[in-house]
Specification:
This protein is of the alpha/beta class. It is about 65% helix and about 10% strand. The two termini are about 70 Å apart.
Length: about 575
């Protein structure tokens, strides 16, 4: 928790103001019972109306001062903690942006969403309460005890019994609450995971008729969270009646013993009234502390979860300076004896991979499911670092190259098409924010997206660019989404284009037209294409055949048909004998 308070530094002036104003408010509240005692014991008993009016005006002025201090303290506290929450969310998001896929796999996207939203809000609420309570509660309790003892020391013995009993009761409740709050945050993660999977996978769920099953999953996670929440709120609900019971018993004891002293002439009525108010203030201070202590476990649990994210350093470290390229070729990619295994895996996903992808040529990668095709691309993009060997771009090891500079060189089309809410133009320009509408339109036409853009725009291609997309591009077909993803990569004007199984949702005719357009449009760039279809790779200058993480063949289609049995097997499984011939 203390580590997160560094995000409060920009608001330290507001924090000082909050502390000062809260101190003023507390002192005003402590001074009022003393003035009331004077009114009763001096003004009312003696019938001194001017004295009553004078002290009354003073009480009114102090009340206004305390009220103004309370309002200003609330305002400054709200500004400070809102800024703290904003900076903490931004810092958390910025840190997560530097994570590699390995850190995302470790924490999980659902948990990161909860930590960035719900957990930050819990910490923000705790800090807001602490800003006020850290001054008000201790000062009120300490000042109330001193003034109560000053008013009547013998009557103060009631506090010696009451305060330890109240503190012990609150401590016992807190010990139970701490574990429950931690458990509740973990169950919020679980509920968010189930909900996210249900919303993103709604098409699959409905297609397989698993709505009832998913409802059961959500109901189980929801009921689990509800059960823990009920137990937490039961504990919190127990606190108030318990504290009120102790306060009322304390008041009865004070009135009893105070009445005895008034009859004996050792205590005045105004003093008894002031003493009762001091005790009430002390009790309410303890109640405020108990409320803060109940929020503390939940806030602390959230702070620990946020701290875990901030303390998690990305395994891929950037370099500040880019070494000079050792080759005059721009966009050359080389894998030199590269081996890689995923964290926790026993066998490597790639073993001793070596090849060169030259500018102006198309390098196709083909192989069965799980052969390591996408993993190879992830190493090029430096989503992971190789366990052994080197991945070189322009003769420079990607581990020695700033990630931003590396990815500026690459136009990437992922296997799982990702589009964002907004317009089609917004999504295409995501590859190059400086691209004009004309640039986006040209990229879309090369990507064979002109036909459905015209349809969306009522015959007008430009109007089609302004067509809205819902989240994930769910209002488009799979092939349309793939073509937009390709257009997004093309508008980048990169030196290297990486297409990871980006033609799978296209019909054969569109596939052929797209490949022809790419050859013409990207003539001088390096093209690395992962595909399942032989028809999508047979025209490539170089075809790499992967099998179980090993490079088992490299060459042109004709060369591989003569030298690589696995490639021949793939070809024969997809093409007729006439097409093979």
């Amino acid at each position: 928790m203390l580590g997160l308070l560094r995000f409060m530094r920009p608001y330290r002036v507001l924090v000082v103001l909050v502390l000062g104003l809260t101190f003023t408010q507390t002192m005003a509240s402590l001074y009022l019972p003393n003035l009331m005692s004077d009114i009763v014991d001096t003004g009312i008993i003696r019938g001194d109306v001017p004295y009553i009016l004078g002290v009354g005006v003073l009480m009114f002025g102090i009340t206004l001062l305390g009220g103004a201090a309370a309002v200003l303290a609330s305002y400054c506290g709200a500004r400070a903690t809102a800024g703290f929450g904003q900076d903490l969310r931004l810092g958390l998001f910025s840190h997560v942006e530097h994570f590699t896929l390995q850190e995302f796999d470790q924490l999980g996207s659902s948990s990161l969403i909860v930590r960035t939203t719900n957990d930050v809000m819990q910490v923000q609420q705790l800090v807001n309460m602490m800003l006020r309570m850290l001054v008000m509660a201790p000062l009120t309790a300490l000042g109330g005890i001193i003034l109560a003892v000053q008013t009547d020391a013998r009557l103060s013995l009631v506090l010696v019994v009451v305060l330890p009993v109240m503190g012990l009761a609150i401590l016992l409740l807190m010990r139970q609450g701490l574990g429950l709050f931690r458990s509740m945050q973990a169950k919020v993660d679980r509920l968010n995971l189930v909900l996210r999977e249900n919303l993103t996978g709604t098409r699959v769920i409905r297609a397989f008729g698993r709505g009832t099953y998913e409802l059961g999953r959500f109901d189980a996670a929801n009921a689990d969270l509800t059960d823990t929440s009920v137990r937490v709120f039961q504990l919190m609900a127990t606190t108030m009646p318990l504290v009120m019971l102790i306060m009322n018993l304390a008041t009865v004891a004070i009135v009893w013993f105070g009445g005895v002293q008034i009859n004996a002439g050792t205590l005045q009525l105004g003093q008894l009234m002031a003493f009762i108010q001091y005790v009430m203030q002390i009790m309410f201070a303890v109640l405020m502390v108990s409320m803060m202590l109940f929020m503390l476990p939940r806030g602390q649990a959230s702070a620990v979860r946020i701290g875990e994210v901030l303390a998690l350093e990305p395994r891929i470290v950037d370099h500040a300076e880019l070494p000079a390229p050792s080759t005059s070729l721009r966009g050359q990619v080389e894998f030199s004896h590269v081996t890689f295994r995923y964290p926790g895996a026993e066998e490597p996903a790639l073993s001793d991979i070596s090849f060169v992808a030259a500018p102006g040529q198309s390098t196709a990668i083909i192989g069965g499911t799980g052969s390591g095709k996408s993993t190879l691309l992830h190493l090029l993009l430096r989503m992971y670092d190789a366990e052994a060997g080197r991945v070189l771009v322009d003769g420079v090891d990607v581990r020695e190259m700033p990630q931003e500079r590396l990815r500026e060189k690459i136009g990437y089309v992922p296997q799982q098409t990702v589009l964002f809410s907004g317009t089609i133009l917004d999504n295409i320009r995501y590859g190059n924010l400086e691209a004009s509408a004309e640039d986006a339109l040209r990229a879309a036409e090369v990507a064979q997206a002109g036909d459905f853009l015209a349809e969306l725009g009522g015959g007008n291609l430009q109007a089609g660019l302004d067509a809205p997309l819902v989240q994930g591009g769910a209002n488009l077909s799979g092939g349309q989404r793939q073509r937009l993803a390709i257009a997004r990569a093309l508008v980048r004007r990169a030196e290297i284009y990486v297409l990871d199984d980006s033609f799978s949702a296209l019909d054969y005719g569109t596939d052929a037209r797209l490949r022809a357009a790419l050859r013409q449009h990207l003539g001088g760039a390096t093209r690395i294409v992962v595909a399942q279809r032989v028809s999508s790779v047979r025209d490539a200058e170089q075809i790499l055949v992967l099998d179980d993480g090993h490079l088992v063949g490299a060459g042109s289609h004709r060369e591989l048909m003569e030298s690589c049995p696995i490639y021949r097997e793939i070809v024969s499984s997809q093409l007729s004998p006439e097409d093979v011939a």
